[in-house]
Design goal:
Strand order of the largest sheet: 2-1-5-4-3
Helix content: 40-55%
Oligomer: single chain
Structural class: alpha/beta
Number of domains: 4
Distance between the termini: 136 Å
Strand content: 15-25%
Length: 669
């Protein structure tokens, strides 16, 4: 009623004051709430940062279950009066280490269950959970609890007051960083206060001025000198750098070459030795399985042989490529019958052709007879081209045409391998002869292979000064043409000693048992066992020696038909044994077949070996060789005027057929 009796002027004044007061109260409350929320957020961020630091320092202790170290890390929180609880939990939720400001045992306010990284306000406390990880692996959880009643007011006041001191210092730091990064001495720090910090800023600005003046004088003084000497210094530097790089590259290349040679030698021996046993025993088991009538196991044994031979081919390709790149691949030139080599290749590849239901057709011109080249590499070239044709052709035809042509007055042997397979596109031809390159990824996945076959073929052709080319279109098959000189000339020729005519008269008195005896010299028991079992089935008497000295003694005693000799043996290696055999007048005429993992055919033939085989040995090829020696010995005994074995090239085909017949009979028996 009193308000009603007031005058209108007083009523308006009173209403205005009430409205203004209410607005002021609401504004103050809003600012207070905003500050409270902001500071609660700052407090939570500060506590989470501390949790991250403590978690990082405790991760190692939790991983190695060092409870004492973890407790010591948590005890450092004594300096933070607002933090009342800190607990490290194992992944299973059990307590690993803890810190309580009041040591009264485990408090009742610990969380009943853990949660992911984050924070929450519980009563008058700020609680933070942080995942402890080590190398990305969760090792535990950290729980921190801060008493807001102790820390809120102190944090509020300190956060406001610290700005008065830290702000000018931080500004000075930013200025120093800018000067250091940009080398701009014209920058000046802004002075805000006249206290010690203000005087520090004045001194800093004065120092910058002096540095700027000295820098300007120094640049102007040294500019001309730098211009005159810069070119000379750069030239000297580049020359020294180039010289050092060349020297380092030379040393690195020499060291790499030595390491590579050692690695290749070790790898060749370590891989081929078990492969020899795998392939050899699987072949023996296949024969015995066939004989026992367990045909269902034959396919499994063939798979073992196929896998072993595939791995062997890969090893041979890598070693051949490495030798070519190192310039250590030489040529051993000899005269051989082209028709015989073609027949061997076709026979070898018949299973590969039959796998995809392909047929192989051979056309040999009448003017093709013999050629002088490296027969091993010619075989490898033909094998790679024909095996590729068989692999990429399905239910088709592979044709091999051999002709002798004349180009610029020189005779060349031309081999053409054609197929009706998938063909090669123009883009695929670009990388056809590159190492480890195949037509495309889809072909590599479907047909397999390493992409080394054509690369090695290309290198071998170049090594013999020949040419190789391809004509093909996608889906239209391919034709590879290889042209090799009919008479390959080696730049540095070391002629092998001539075998000459053999004087077999000393062997005439020997009994038939000794004529059919083969001496196997090898330190590997599995090799001796395989060779003995295989050669025994070919109607030979086999005597084995485990070292070079024993082998030489048995050779003197038995005078065998021939000797198979390994190179890598302890104490007395194969080279030494071969040299002693050929220097002994009583043993010099006995043929020696080198059977080894060491790929050095040229040295073996130069020392007088009759043949050189790389382990694992193809049994059919070994059968052909030993049968030829038996036929040659028999021919010499019955007709003393006949030529020795090394000159019976025209009679190679019948001998080869005899060996094949004997080997096939062995597999059937």
């Amino acid at each position: 009623m009193i308000l009603q009796n007031l005058s209108i002027k007083r009523k308006l004044t009173l209403i205005t004051m009430l409205t203004s007061s209410l607005a002021l109260i609401l504004s103050s409350a809003s600012f207070l709430i905003y500050d409270l929320v902001s500071f609660r957020h700052l407090l939570s961020q500060d506590l989470m940062t501390q949790a991250e630091i403590i978690g990082y320092n405790s991760a190692g202790a939790m991983e190695f279950k060092d409870e004492a170290a973890a407790t010591a890390t948590l005890s450092a929180l004594t300096a933070k009066e607002d933090i009342v609880t800190a607990v490290l939990y194992k992944p299973d939720g059990k307590i690993f280490a803890h810190y309580f400001r009041v040591n009264t045992g485990l408090p009742s306010y610990l969380p009943s269950h853990l949660q992911g990284s984050g924070y929450r306000f519980e009563g008058g406390y700020l609680e933070v959970f942080h995942d402890v990880t080590l190398n990305g692996e969760h090792v535990g959880t950290l729980f921190l609890q801060s008493d807001l009643r102790q820390g809120l007011f102190a944090f509020f006041v300190s956060s406001k007051l610290q700005g008065f001191i830290s702000r000018p210092i931080l500004h000075l730091e930013d200025t120093m960083r800018m000067v250091s990064a940009n080398k701009n001495y014209g920058v000046r720090a802004v002075k805000t206060y006249g206290d010690e910090i203000g005087r520090l800023i004045d001194g800093f600005n004065t120092m910058l001025s002096e540095i700027q003046q000295r820098d300007t004088v120094l640049q102007s003084t040294n500019g001309e000198l730098k211009t005159r000497t810069q070119e000379l210094e750069e030239e000297i530097f580049h020359r020294k750098q180039t010289q050092e790089e060349l020297l380092n590259a030379k040393h690195a290349a020499e060291e790499a070459n030595r390491a590579k040679s050692t690695f290749l030698a070790n790898m060749s021996h370590e891989l081929r030795t078990p492969l020899n046993a795998i392939i050899g025993y699987s072949e023996m088991l296949e024969e015995e399985t066939r004989d026992s009538g367990k045909v269902e196991n034959v396919q499994d044994l063939k798979k073992i042989q196929s896998a072993g031979k595939h791995l062997l081919a890969l090893i041979n390709d890598v070693l051949d490529l490495s030798k070519i790149e190192a310039g250590k691949m030489g040529l051993h030139v000899e005269t051989f019958d082209v028709a015989q080599v073609i027949d061997e290749m076709v026979t070898t590849l018949q299973p590969a052709a039959a796998k995809n239901a392909n047929s192989i057709r051979v056309h040999l011109e009448e003017n093709v007879s013999v050629m002088r080249a490296d027969i091993t590499k010619v075989r490898q070239i033909l094998f790679n081209l024909l095996s590729n044709a068989c692999k990429f052709t399905d239910h088709g035809t592979i044709a091999l045409n051999v002709d002798q042509i004349k180009v610029e007055g020189k005779n060349w042997i031309q081999f053409q391998v054609s197929d009706t397979g998938i063909g090669i596109s123009a883009k695929q031809k670009e990388n056809l002869f590159q190492e480890f390159a195949q037509a495309d990824a889809s072909i590599a996945r479907k047909y397999g292979g390493t992409g080394l076959g054509l690369a090695i073929t290309h290198r071998f052709v170049q090594l013999m000064k020949g040419k190789i080319g391809v004509e093909s279109e996608a889906g239209q098959g391919a034709t590879f043409t290889v042209q090799l000189p009919a008479h390959v000339v080696v730049e540095t020729v070391e002629s092998a000693p001539s075998e000459g005519t053999s004087n077999i008269s000393a062997a005439l008195p020997e009994t038939k048992t000794n004529l059919d005896t083969i001496l196997v010299i090898d330190d590997d028991p599995s090799v001796r066992d395989l060779m003995s079992r295989f050669l025994t089935k070919l109607d030979f008497r086999v005597v084995a020696a485990a070292n070079g000295e024993e082998g030489f003694r048995l050779a003197k005693k038995l005078r065998p038909l021939l000797i198979t000799l390994d190179v890598v043996m302890p104490e007395c290696d194969g080279w030494t044994v071969l040299n002693r055999l050929k220097n002994d007048s009583d043993l010099a005429e006995i043929p020696v077949i080198m059977v080894t993992v060491v790929d050095n055919e040229a040295r073996g033939l130069d020392l007088g070996a009759s043949n050189y085989l790389i382990k694992p040995v193809q049994r059919d090829r070994l059968a052909v060789l030993v049968e030829k020696h038996r036929v040659a010995r028999s021919s010499t005994i019955t007709d003393t005027n006949s030529a020795p074995f090394s000159y019976v090239a025209a009679d190679g085909q019948p001998a080869q057929e005899t060996a094949r017949t004997r080997a096939s009979r062995t597999r059937r028996n």
